[in-house]
Design a protein that fits this description.
single chain; about 80 residues; mainly alpha; about 0% strand
Length: about 80
Amino acid sequence: MTEITFSQDQKARMVSKIKAYFEDEIQQEIGGFEAEFLIDFFATELGPHFYNRGLFDAQQVLTEKMDEVGYVMQELEKPEV
């Protein structure tokens, strides 16, 4: 897995959400630098867990869809005389 990176716009939105969370939920102010540090920490330490879960979920959906394709293919078969 390559390093997780975000665009400036994505990071700015995440920083805003983290700051709002800290203010709303734990009544603490957090600066932009600290919020970016948390984003980097979460991306490095927890990102692989979310990434792997996403891969697992995608594989499950793909498997289900391939099963459906298999059934459709069977329905297209012509009877052999």
